[in-house]
Amino acid sequence: MSPRIRGLRTFRAWLQARPQAADALLALGLLLVGLPQMYLQDFPESGDYAAFRTPDAANGLIVVVVTMALAWRRRHPLPVLLVIVAGEMSLTVWGYPPSVPDVMAFLIAIYSLAAHRGLAQSALGGVAGFVSFLVSLVMLPVGTSPVVLVSDCALVAGVWVLGRNLRLRRAYFAELEDRAARLERARGTDARAARIEERSRIARELHDVVAHHVSVMTVQAGAARRIIDRDPGSAREAMSTIEEVGRTALSEMRRIVGVLRTERDADQAGRELAPQPGLGDLGELLDHVRETGLSVQLWIEGEARTPSPGVDVAAFRLIQEALTNTLKHAGAQARAWVRLYYTDADLTVEIEDDGRGTATIVADGTDNPGHGLVGMYERVALYGGELRIGPRVGGGFGVRARFPLEA
Hints:
Layout: H1 3-17, H2 19-40, H3 57-68, H4 77-93, H5 100-116, H6 119-139, H7 146-227, H8 232-257, H9 266-272, H10 282-291, E1 295-301, H11 309-329, E2 335-342, E3 346-353, H12 359-364, H13 370-382, E4 386-391, E5 397-404
Parallel strand pairs: 1-2
Antiparallel strand pairs: 2-3, 3-5, 4-5
Helix pairs in contact: 2-3, 2-5, 3-4, 3-5, 4-5, 4-6, 5-6, 5-7, 6-7, 7-8, 7-11, 11-13
């Protein structure tokens, strides 16, 4: 880029940052062009121009004031127009001829008022300027033909309309920019909400997986420790179960955390990771629980229907979490029951045990079941279901959830 072009761009940026200075330069430019022409031109002693007074110092002073008022045309367009109108009327009354600076200043003032003020103020100023312009034409000492009168009035009206259209166009683009900014903020808010929801889902999944499998592994490890001396075969079987459960837990954790992978690995991750568990995997879950020594029975009532994928996962995780709590808190001799009730529209899941119940844990302060219970409520509420959690009549603890079969 040449130094000249760079300098022009710098000067243009300086003018854009200082609009009043730019308007002052515009006024000075009009004076530099118009004043010499006003004083140097020869007025004939006969004809139309003979009726005008010869320009003098008073004429030049009024033209300078009228023209330099344009320096405030953007900040105070209506007062500037009034000053220019007053100057134009003074020149007409005293018989001075029209000149380039004052005529251009009047048109620029009409345009500036329409472009920088609202409709009410610009219309009022425009009417006042238009009327003063007509009065000035009528008061000229020379006759004005109808064609000139109509063309001059059309010029003034056109300048006002041009300024008004520019204001409307500027307001339209400002509204578009504001709307784009609002949409961008809304998209950012939606993205943050989606990330928060995804983190909550991952946290629930990880809690369910870790709590259940670690509880099973802990119970099996305790059993193996107690019988390793007198029954090594059973101890080895318990250790094999621990290994299998651990591998299953790692596989599920890998699947859940896989959503955090980069897009580059997404296709490969989708091929490697197993699908989400559902009620079809309930038998395997109950087998794992029974291997810990907890007696679990399953009843299915009604005609089994296929729920939506989300309800399928949520129901499985609910049963998994409830049985995990039973393993942790119900006691060694506890028994558990899992019931599935299918209707045309709903699936009801019940998990009950006859142990101590998790209500005793909050009282004695030995553990905090809050995350698991909150996760249950979140899962059921996410699919429009209902959840009841509390002690059973006759002892133990119960969890009852109703899911709509359609998400």
